[in-house]
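notes to self, project folder thing:

trying the whole complex as one job this time. last attempt i did each chain seperately and stitching them together was a nightmare. two parts in total, labels are on each line so i dont mix them up again. if this works i'll redo the older ones the same way
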Amino acid sequence: MRYELYYWPEIQGRGEFVRLALEEAGVAYVDVARRPGGTASMLKLLDGGAVDRPPYAPPFLRAGKLLIGQTANILSYLGAQHGLAPAAAAGRLWTQQLQLTIADLVDEAHDTHHPIASSLYYEDQRKEAKRRTADFLANRVPKYLGYFEDVLAHNRAGDKHLVGGRLTYADLSLFQIVAGLRYAFPRATARIERRHPRVVALHERVARRPRIAAYLASKRRIPFNEMGIFRHYPELDR
Amino acid sequence: MRYELYYWPEIQGRGEFVRLALEEAGVAYVDVARRPGGTASMLKLLDGGAVDRPPYAPPFLRAGKLLIGQTANILSYLGAQHGLAPAAAAGRLWTQQLQLTIADLVDEAHDTHHPIASSLYYEDQRKEAKRRTADFLANRVPKYLGYFEDVLAHNRAGDKHLVGGRLTYADLSLFQIVAGLRYAFPRATARIERRHPRVVALHERVARRPRIAAYLASKRRIPFNEMGIFRHYPELDR
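result (full assembly):
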């Protein structure tokens, strides 16, 4: 079976968390919307009518007969299929709990540049974006990264992974968070991450994994840009 | 086993989605923070140090040895334990997908009154709240409710439930969404919900379920107020 990933073709965005899991799993997948006509196929599935159980928004994954939406839900599925999460219920729930906390951080990162409405341009909410980002960098990022630092420090199997002694999709996602924050807010992130050495070390370790390193060096990895979740607007990076 | 729910004692908030599932399941639970000294117990678990796998934020649920955080993750667990979700993988994933979409709507409802920072008072972001709420009511609520209306209309087992022919935790949560929107934005919601008769009918049906009706009439149901997610500020309700 070849997976079909549906996500906006121009950005990393939320789809990137799924791409990283697919790449680390080493499974065959098509990034549908990056092929000719693919975006139209994706929009058709969103419209409703085409399927009984339409997703609300990308990303979504076709896995045989299943069409799975919501990033964390897709990762829960892939984690179980490809050993990217523990098999036991307790570890599975904990991995998903961490992923949902990462998803909250992703939502907040998005809203730094779109605090008023996704339907408006950044330029039409820049003043509000400055206020929101100041709080995000002063309070929210340190709280989230401090939390993940604590989780790593308290992991009885060692501080190399968020869950137990093996890589999970939550580690891949935390890698992406650090990458995104560094791109969007290089100055603030350099300052904040000094206090979270385990999070930074995890990021570096994930980046060196053979399949992830190959992916990051390939054209499959879309560069960060100012259409995605993590955007670099210098005026927001104090 | 008696469950222990940890959530802020003054509000419905995100904890309410868990309370509704516990009530419908008819299981014994303690709403810990509503007991004397309970909030301190809750904060201690959040601090880290007390447990190896600390939650990032309330709500969280103690279920025997498990401490489960993140609303949708708690519901996934309770759904499997108490027949509030299908047993088969496809139905389980679909129920969770819907719940995560509801969670996105909850986040957006929160941000209507706190578009800049949770750490600031509403009064310090009222101007931004007006702009954000205008978009929320004009674009976002109709899109979300339209989506759930479509899901109900396309359900091959009938339009009485979101998933198959039986109640799931996603139905309970959609009930709560309608209740919250009606409280926070009575004028706008009255206008919007006319176009979503299946969603409204689902709300009414859930409210009439014996255990839910008994819960809603009890003191265990905390009234809506201006500390929770759904707040009624008349100036935001066009």
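what i see at first glance: The first strand of chain B starts at residue 3 and ends at 6.
need to look closer tmrw
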